[in-house]
């Protein structure tokens, strides 16, 4: 039953919001004075979504692919509370995410926050288990995250974010495995490397340049956070902040020149062939070649990402038409546990939101039909999708087939469709493939 009587209210203060919204108590007194019930606002809070059954079908379809891909790569699922202690997110590098917290004081006067991202919770969990964890840890999760964002296409105040993280692997093979998972997901839903690319860089590139120019290590994270802003603002808008960090005009000029590098040969000229950052990036490209997803990757020295804790390779998925915000992003964060007072432990991972990918799939007409009443359209989509994937066979299971314990197998090259017993499907298809 829907009840408008909110039993108790508590005040919520969020950075960046105007205070003093009409409270439930004020609404109630209005009601009394006019004697009329005001109609309930039927929209969910700004930037949040309701999920009706058809929306849940879409969400479960997407999460199903994410979970399958994660398990295929040997990752185990974990979860954490959506409400965390605020201090988990207090970082001093000026990141946007820490200014967008849904934070407040609870009834026990504790400062708490809805999580804006999963990585700090994961770090807390890994740290709590400490040495009893068997490394490497390969875990995934699909948390709902909350950020008080300015709303744009694909950016909301809550979103679900597929996370995959690997702890305890210092080598670049961990990055390669994560990128493989991302590409595997894209391919499964029909997205190609013509639709989407993944920009790759390493923060070690900037770190080497800045260290050589005498910038102290403790200014590095804040410099990266500022550099990330250059995607949206002009250099002159943040020059003052850079100077406050101690970056001279000479350093800023060198920094900007480095950011414009778009190929590894040019990077070699800047860093020299003894550079560790360069060696890592070359190795990553070799792994990508061996995995078969090299065509998805683009080296781009301007990608540093906006979170303070990244220390090494960083990457970001983008639509090649340039119409949408970042599709996913991640990187290496070997020092995060140390910032929480623990022993450092190598870690790398990514977050992949549900909002931008939904826009992209809609734009490319790649979403299945989630309306239960239109079977025909659903079937047409299944045939089109199988064709797009270059599948040899399509297996069709409906209610009649389930009742009979069979499936329909369509050979897409020959256009022939036959009934096959469920237990014999794989042998049947294998035979057909062998004889074709
Ligand atoms: P992030 O770049 O802040 O990274 O977010 C990762 C992804 O989450 C974005 O690329 C986007 O798909 C989605 N996302 C973020 N904010 C919003 C929003 N307001 N609305 C819709 N989607 C959004 C992180 O959060 C890191 N913790 C990821 C990570 C995990 N790094 C290592 N492990």
From TrEMBL:
KW Nucleotide-binding (keyword) present: yes
EC identifiers of the protein: 6.1.1.21
Coiled-coil stretches: none
SUPFAM superfamilies: Class II aaRS ABD-related (SSF52954), Class II aaRS and biotin synthetases (SSF55681)
Family statement: Belongs to the class-II aminoacyl-tRNA synthetase family.
CDD domains assigned to the protein according to its UniProt record, in alphabetical order: HisRS-like_core
Lineage of the species this protein comes from: Eukaryota, Cryptophyceae, Pyrenomonadales, Geminigeraceae, Guillardia
Domain of life: Eukaryota
A single MF term (Gene Ontology): ATP binding
Protein's organism: Guillardia theta (strain CCMP2712) (Cryptophyte)
Example of a GO cellular component annotation carried by this entry: cytoplasm
Binding site for L-histidine: 117-119, 147, 161, 165, 305, 309-310
One of the GO biological process terms: histidyl-tRNA aminoacylation
Name used for this protein in its record: histidine--tRNA ligase
Every Aminoacyl-transfer RNA synthetases class-II family profile domain range: 47-368
Keywords assigned: Aminoacyl-tRNA synthetase, ATP-binding, Ligase, Nucleotide-binding, Protein biosynthesis
Biased composition (Basic and acidic residues): 29-48
């Amino acid at each position: 039953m829907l009840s408008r009587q909110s039993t108790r209210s508590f005040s919520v203060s969020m950075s960046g919001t105007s205070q003093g919204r009409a409270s439930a108590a004020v609404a109630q007194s209005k009601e009394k004075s006019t004697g009329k019930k005001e109609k309930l606002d039927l929209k969910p809070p700004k930037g949040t979504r309701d999920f009706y059954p058809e929306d849940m079908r879409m969400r479960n379809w997407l999460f199903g692919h994410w979970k399958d891909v994660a398990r295929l790569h040997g990752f185990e699922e974990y979860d954490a509370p959506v409400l965390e202690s605020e201090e988990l997110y207090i970082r001093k590098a000026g990141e946007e995410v820490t200014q967008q917290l849904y934070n407040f004081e609870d009834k026990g006067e504790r400062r708490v926050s809805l999580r804006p991202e999963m990585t700090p919770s994961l770090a807390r969990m890994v740290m709590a288990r400490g040495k009893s964890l068997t490394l490497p840890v390969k875990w995934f999760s699909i948390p709902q995250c909350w950020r008080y964002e300015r709303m744009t296409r694909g950016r909301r105040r809550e979103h679900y974010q597929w996370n995959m993280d690997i702890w305890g692997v210092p080598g670049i093979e961990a990055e390669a495995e994560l990128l493989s998972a991302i590409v595997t997901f894209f391919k499964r839903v029909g997205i190609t490397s013509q639709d989407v690319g993944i920009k790759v860089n390493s923060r070690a590139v900037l770190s080497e340049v800045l260290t050589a120019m005498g910038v102290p290590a403790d200014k590095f994270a804040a410099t990266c956070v500022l550099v990330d802003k250059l995607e949206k603002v002009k250099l002159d808008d943040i020059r003052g902040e850079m100077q406050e960090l101690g970056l001279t005009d000479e350093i800023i000029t060198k920094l900007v020149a480095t950011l414009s590098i778009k190929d590894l040969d040019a990077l070699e000229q800047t860093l020299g062939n003894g550079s560790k950052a360069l060696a890592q990036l070359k190795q990553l490209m070799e792994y990508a070649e061996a995995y078969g997803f090299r065509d998805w990757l683009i080296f781009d020295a301007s990608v540093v990402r906006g979170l303070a804790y990244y220390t090494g390779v960083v990457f970001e998925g983008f639509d090649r038409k340039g119409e949408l915000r970042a599709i996913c992003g991640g990187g290496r964060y070997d020092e995060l546990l140390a910032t929480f007072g623990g022993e450092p432990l190598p870690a790398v991972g990514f977050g992949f939101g549900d909002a931008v990918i939904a826009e992209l799939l809609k734009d490319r007409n790649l979403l299945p039909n989630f309306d239960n009443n239109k079977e025909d359209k659903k079937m047409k989509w299944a045939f089109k999708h199988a064709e797009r994937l270059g599948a040899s066979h399509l297996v069709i299971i409906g209610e009649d087939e389930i009742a009979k314990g069979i499936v329909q197998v369509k050979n897409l090259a020959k256009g022939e469709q036959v009934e096959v017993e469920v237990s014999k499907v794989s042998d049947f298809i294998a035979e057909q493939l062998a004889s074709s």
